[in-house]
Amino acid sequence: MERMKKEHSEEKAEPKKSKVHIKADDLDVEFMTLDLSSIASTMSFVEAFKAKGLPLHVLVCNAGIVYGGEAQTADGFEIHFQVNYLSHFLLTLHLLPVLKASGGNAKVVLVSSMAYRQVGWHEDNIQSNNKDQMTRYGSTKLYQIMEMFTLAEKLEGTGIGVFSLHPGFVDSDIFKKENQQISGPTKFVVGMLASIKLSRNTFDGALTTIHAAVDPQYDGKTALYFENTKPTRLKSSVATNKDKQEFLWKYSLDCLKDYVTEDTLKELTSQ
Fold first, then answer.
1. pLDDT value for 198
2. Residue 115 lies in a domain
3. Which of 61, 43, 108 is nearest to 258 (CA)?
4. For residue 3, what are the CA distances in angstroms to 9, 17, 24, 29, 111?
5. Contact assessment for residue 83 and residue 36, using Cβ atoms and an 8 Å cutoff
6. What residues have CB less than 8 Å from 129, skipping those under 6 apart?
7. What CATH number did the domain enclosing 95 receive?
8. Is residue 192 part of a domain?
9. How many Å apart are CA 197 and CA 169, to the nearest integer?
10. Mapped to the 3 state alphabet, what secondary structure does 24-52 carry?
11. In a domain, 139, yes or no
């Protein structure tokens, strides 16, 4: 946050060097604790946010891990499954009342990945236990897209749009040297892609998310998947399969049965 404010101040002083122009003199940003590997932390965040009485126009579910290892969370879930998908699912359900109360054209944006194309469907192992790390990661990204379709259908008529997207290959902190989970060959490939300009910097990597979140041409629309800032056709029959979408939805609710009440689910249909 300090870096953001410093950069914003510098850009205001020299607007010609800025890629974007923000009208505000100061950035109004606030930190709140949220650990998606913990259901207790996720629920605490929900209550803390609701207590502030703030509106919520856009919810971007962007947090995720690729190299979490073969680990279970304290809640008993495979760590990629919980961090990348399940806790976002829980968070979204509990924030629906705030999204609805904040006016029309609210958005839920689920940041997925083209890694969804590389995985299959295994109803007997939804959490991808004992699978390689890219299968675990890709499966959670597939689930985000499947969630988009089901959530969009259930929220029809509520004024909330639900989108998903692939941001591109972004040279972000997840690939830095300090991350000991990343293999040497992976670091080499990441560095090579960056050197020949095939990876995106974090500014460009955010553009597709921003288009999905605030571009007015998508107001009133829902269930769109974006790549390169534009809606794109999905390349997976699993992602668009309604029976599999419904299976995943019910499986997710069963995982969260102690945290999702009937009153919570009523928000999916009530205006």
1. 58
2. yes
3. 43
4. 10, 17, 16, 12, 24
5. yes
6. 78
7. 3.40.50.720
8. no
9. 11
10. CCCCCCCCCCCCCCCHHHHHHHHHHHHHH
11. yes
Q: What is the mean pLDDT of each run of 10 residues along the chain (271 residues)?
A: 91 82 87 98 98 97 88 96 98 97 94 94 96 93 98 95 91 57 50 54 88 96 97 96 98 98 86 56
Dihedral, CA of residue 18, residue 31, residue 101 and residue 252, to nearest 10:
110
- Lookup result for tokens 């534009």: 230
Rounded to two decimals, the pTM is 0.90
The answer to the question of residue 68 being in a domain is yes
Please give the span between the terminal C-alpha atoms of the chain, in angstroms, as a whole number.
36
For residue 251, give its domain range. 56-167+206-266
How many separate domains does the chain show?
A: 1
